[in-house]
């Protein structure tokens, strides 16, 4: 077998390897740790429910997962969203399949325009607020059967007793057909209540992505166009937080001048060892937190 | 820079409020307990004793046969099996013996229903919100087990 030397590969091949590494990590997390995002959000719901009922907030397993995941996100950015969230991976898979279908038919895929999605991205805060208020008022429990996450989790676990879950099934189908197909990371960017929490965290600048804008090719916005969230990355040395960055890392390989890197000098952010290290670290703390 | 600091302080404020909230409830719970103990002391010192142990055998109606019983029910992804231990006619322990398809974070949360079952001496208790499936599984399995224990 010929030994693969990653230092002699062309940029295009490296890009491909990065894509496959990400897909591999996503598939592994999808298969073996599919419930982290619901567990963490159950922590948010639990806190509001307890306050609404005037009860003490205990350090339950959900709250632990929530705290640990938020701490990880503050340090590394939303790596969890980009690499480990089962629902995000579902969206990536469906979107990739949709694009592939259009490619086969040699047609241009129908996609949502950036103008629309830019406004839609505020919807997630509304979703979070509504769920929080329902929990606080103690009536969330009565909304059983409406959550598309519950339906997805049940299907993932091989539980097909979906009677009473019709609203959730319809919502899930709507999200998949009307959203995930038409925009990469539609749900994460526009609707995810856990994403709304993550996007408000004070993410530290060390591992967040920045760009050396001064030396960019004039008029180039390759990274913004490639970005599922349409982000124009902050300048070097800035403490600006891009809450909607899922750390998908597509921009890093897209930039023709290789101007995108983390806040730490010399670290681009998509090195194989760094990606694998973060994935393993996440796995360790998730197992520790009892997922 | 400003944005980061605003976010940081918001987060700290939220964490602070949650801790403060817990602290207040803690203090209130302690106050209530002290008031309760004081009331008891007064009752005792005033001599009206003997009937302070009001009907201690409330679990009498439940009255189960001693032994260990097993039960199974559907949880989230599969079957949840429990073992109920009855001693001196009372539910002494409920143990989840197998729950392979349950998610461990959810199962850990759902197990909060066990103390409730033991306290109520019955499986007729509310499920744990947030872990409805798994706790319903434990509840139903315990119910099945207890059916065998009824006198």
UniProtKB/TrEMBL annotation, chain B:
Residues 42-75 are annotated as: Disordered. GO terms for molecular function: FMN binding. Residues 45-57 have a biased composition (Low complexity). This is FMN-binding protein. The lineage of its organism: Bacteria, Bacillati, Bacillota, Clostridia, Lachnospirales. Residues 75-149 form the FMN-binding domain. It holds the Pfam family FMN_bind. Signal peptide: none annotated. Gene3D superfamilies: 3.90.1010.20. GO terms for cellular component: membrane.
């Amino acid at each position: 077998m010929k030994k693969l030397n990653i230092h002699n590969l062309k940029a295009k091949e490296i890009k491909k390897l990065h894509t496959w590494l990400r897909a591999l990590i996503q598939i592994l997390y999808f298969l073996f740790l599919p419930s982290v995002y619901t567990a963490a959000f159950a922590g948010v719901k639990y806190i509001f429910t307890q306050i609404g009922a005037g009860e003490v907030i205990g350090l339950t397993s959900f709250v632990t997962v929530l705290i640990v995941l938020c701490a990880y996100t503050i340090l590394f950015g939303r790596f969890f969203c980009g690499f480990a969230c089962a629902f995000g991976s579902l969206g990536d898979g469906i979107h990739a399949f949709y694009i592939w279908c259009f490619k086969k038919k040699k047609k241009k895929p129908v996609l949502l325009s950036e103008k629309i999605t830019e406004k839609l991205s505020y919807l997630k805060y509304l979703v979070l607020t509504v769920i929080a208020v329902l929990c606080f008022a103690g009536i969330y429990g009565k909304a059983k059967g409406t959550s598309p996450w519950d339906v997805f989790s049940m299907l993932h676990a091989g539980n097909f007793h979906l009677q009473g879950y019709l609203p959730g099934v319809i919502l899930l189908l709507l999200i998949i057909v009307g959203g995930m197909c038409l925009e990469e990371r539609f749900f994460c960017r526009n609707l995810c209540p856990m994403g709304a929490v993550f996007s408000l965290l004070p993410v530290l600048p060390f591992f967040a992505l920045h760009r050396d804008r001064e030396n960019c090719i004039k008029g180039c916005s390759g990274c913004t166009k490639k970005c599922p969230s349409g982000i124009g990355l902050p300048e070097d040395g800035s403490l600006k937080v891009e809450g909607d960055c899922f750390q998908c890392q597509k921009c890093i390989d897209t930039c023709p001048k290789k101007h995108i890197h983390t806040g730490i000098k010399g670290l681009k952010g998509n090195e194989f060892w760094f990606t694998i290290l973060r994935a393993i670290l996440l796995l360790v703390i998730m197992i520790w937190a009892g997922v | 820079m400003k944005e980061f600091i605003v976010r940081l302080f918001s987060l700290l404020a939220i964490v602070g409020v949650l801790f403060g909230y817990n602290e207040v409830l803690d203090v209130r719970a302690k106050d209530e307990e002290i008031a309760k103990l004081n009331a008891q002391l007064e009752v005792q010192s005033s001599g009206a004793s003997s009937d302070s142990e009001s009907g201690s055998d409330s679990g009498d109606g439940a009255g189960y046969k001693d032994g260990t019983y097993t039960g199974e029910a559907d949880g989230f992804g599969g079957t949840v099996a429990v073992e109920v231990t009855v001693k001196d006619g009372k539910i002494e322990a409920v143990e989840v013996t197998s729950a392979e398809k349950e998610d461990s974070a959810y199962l850990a949360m759902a197990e909060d229903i066990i103390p409730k079952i033991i306290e109520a001496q019955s499986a007729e208790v509310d499920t744990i919100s947030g872990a409805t499936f798994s706790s319903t599984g434990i509840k139903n399995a315990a119910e099945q087990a207890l059916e065998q224990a009824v006198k």
